[in-house]
From TrEMBL:
Stored PANTHER family: MAJOR FACILITATOR SUPERFAMILY (MFS) PROFILE DOMAIN-CONTAINING PROTEIN, PLASTIDIC GLUCOSE TRANSPORTER 4
Location in or out of the cell: Membrane
PROSITE patterns: MFS (PS50850), SUGAR_TRANSPORT_2 (PS00217)
Record field: transmembrane: 68-92, 99-117, 123-145, 157-177, 189-210, 279-298, 318-337, 346-367, 379-398, 410-436, 448-466
Ranges for region Disordered: 506-527
Keyword Transmembrane: yes
Family affiliation: Belongs to the major facilitator superfamily. Sugar transporter (TC 2.A.1.1) family.
Keyword Transport: yes
Record protein name field: General substrate transporter
Biased amino acid composition, Basic and acidic residues: 506-519
Length: 527
């Protein structure tokens, strides 16, 4: 058997089957984008404000929202996602990624139906929490699946599709809420909420065509099922020899993990070399969800602009324009990841841009008078620049890094915790933001950006000192790099042994692989 050519040479088109499957699974993140966009813009729709708000002729737009209600409808879904993310590890270990996504579809549909059917605030709170439970599972399991299913050289793109779908959801929500904002009855918010029912139905049906994660199946001891799933994902992108090489590498990597640390549980993520990996995942997620300032502007940008004196109609137009531009630059970020630079570089670029635009927003709010034209222009400009830079860099790169940096054996536990902590930070930012920006409280407005300017600079230092470059590495190579305690600066140059070991196994030169193949053959006969 000849030596297989480098797997990284296969093109995106050659991997179109895997791309289509990951695109379908990653569509789970559309629900989060839809909900974030809908709940953000509903807070500026008169029909919604008439039912859940209060009249105040001194506020631009004539209506305001009670801060407690505003905080809860924004933060309860995040709290729900926190809870479901934390239990995702135990759930996935026994039932897998696909079942988790099906459960998520049911939860999101129930949560949305509750919100559409009532004008009682208590019922709204319950619906928001249940929707959050579903969204936590959707995001956790879809991102884990894509990381485990994608070829190494295309992993950033296929996991990065999650950001693309979030932005698509935000664009769709912006278009729909812009169309219903002129209504002055309950349909002004029921129609946008109704769009959240589409994704659970489409995804639940589409999952019937999707194989389970091959790495999950192999880790569960179902070797032949894992081999078949890998074959379905790769399609014609690999030759038989290349497919065998990738399969043997996955088996060897998982077996080595089990040999080094045999248990799989929540405490294992803080033991041995997994401690470093878990902390890196948590720190990178925190830099995105908290330090960047994105969750100051994503849920509150429309309301923030209105209370800063921007006309309501203009706010909706700006929101649509910003989200459409964000979708375009998200693709530019994915292109940069594939062809221009690595994860670490783009993270540092994103942190620097985030800091610059948050500082610009804060300074302009400090030196200009409220509600005048220069102040409004500065506000709109810096909000747009921040959202564009976030969509191009930090928002695109974070998920690929946080999913691939943790071990295969503990991915559901580690990434579940990462998602949970990320949701907790988002909840804290979302909960505190109304106090900082509302006229009835601290009334900082754009000066709130000073906090995120400082935290973005801290993130820049974090990325530079601690986050390694993993571009082009298989998940098994990343496991080896951490197991051998390779320094951050040496990740790009260190030569791993797992591929050579797998190649020897494919050629029949490795006694352990011969035993593994015999075990597979026995299992196949039993099946």
């Amino acid at each position: 058997m000849s030596s297989p050519p480098p797997l990284a040479l296969s093109s995106l088109w050659a991997n179109r089957k895997c791309l289509a499957i990951c695109c379908l699974v990653s569509m789970a993140n559309l629900e989060f984008g839809l909900d974030s966009g809908v709940i953000g813009t509903l807070q500026a729709i008169p029909g919604f404000l008439m039912v859940f708000g209060y009249a105040n002729p001194f506020i631009p737009g004539g209506y305001g929202l009670n801060s407690t209600f505003q905080q809860l409808i924004t933060s309860l879904p995040i709290l729900g996602a926190l809870v479901s993310s934390l239990v995702a590890g135990a759930f996935s270990t026994h039932l897998g990624r696909r079942v988790g996504l099906w459960v998520a579809c049911v939860l999101t549909a129930v949560g949305v139906a509750l919100q559409m059917a009532t004008d009682d605030k208590g019922a709204i709170y319950v619906g928001r929490f249940v929707l959050g439970l579903g969204n936590g599972f959707l995001q956790t399991f879809s991102n884990i699946y894509c990381a485990e299913a994608a070829p190494a050289h295309l992993r950033a793109i296929m996991v990065g599709l999650s950001t693309e779908w979030i932005l698509v959801g935000t664009v769709v929500s912006a278009v729909i809420t812009n169309a219903t904002q002129a209504r002055f009855d309950k349909t002004s918010y029921q129609i946008p909420l109704g769009t959240l029912l589409i994704l659970p139905v489409v995804l639940a049906a589409g999952l019937l065509l999707v194989p389970e994660s091959p790495r999950y199946l192999i880790a569960a001891g179902r070797l032949q099922a894992g081999r078949r799933a890998l074959d379905r994902l790769r399609g014609t992108s690999l030759t038989a020899d290349e497919l065998e090489l990738e399969y043997v590498e996955i088996v060897k990597g998982i077996e080595e993990e089990k040999r080094v640390a045999g248990t799989v549980g929540p405490l294992d993520i803080f033991r041995g070399t997994d401690r470093r990996r878990t902390l890196l995942s948590l720190g990178t997620a925190a830099a995105d969800s908290g330090a960047s300032g994105a969750w100051f502007l994503i849920p509150y940008s429309t309301y923030f602009m209105i209370i800063s004196g921007v006309p309501v109609n203009d706010v909706f137009h700006y929101f649509v324009i910003n989200t459409c531009i964000g979708l375009v630059v998200c693709n530019a970020g994915l292109f940069a990841l594939r062809h221009v630079c690595g994860r670490r570089t783009l993270l540092m670029i994103g942190a620097a841009l985030n800091a610059a635009f948050m500082l610009g927003l804060a300074v302009s709010a400090t030196v200009t008078t409220a509600f005048n034209e220069p102040a409004r222009t500065s506000l709109v400009t810096f909000v747009a620049l921040f959202l564009v830079s976030y969509s191009f860099a930090t928002g695109v790169v974070t998920r690929p890094v946080t999913t691939e940096i943790v071990s295969t054996r503990l991915r559901a536990w580690s990434f579940g915790l990462t998602q949970g902590v990320s949701q907790l930070i988002i909840w804290l930012v979302s909960f505190c933001t109304p106090y900082f920006i509302n006229p009835e409280h601290m009334h900082w407005g754009g000066k709130y950006g000073y906090i995120f300017f400082a935290s973005s600079l801290i993130s820049l230092v974090w990325y530079y000192l601690f986050v390694p470059e993993m571009k082009g590495r298989t998940l098994e190579e990343i496991d080896e790099l951490f197991e051998k305690r390779v320094a951050t600066k040496d990740f790009t140059t260190f030569k791993t042994a797992i591929r050579d070991q797998a190649l020897r196994g494919v050629r029949g030169d490795d006694s352990e692989t011969t035993k593994e193949k015999s075990a597979v053959e026995v299992q196949e006969q039993e099946d």
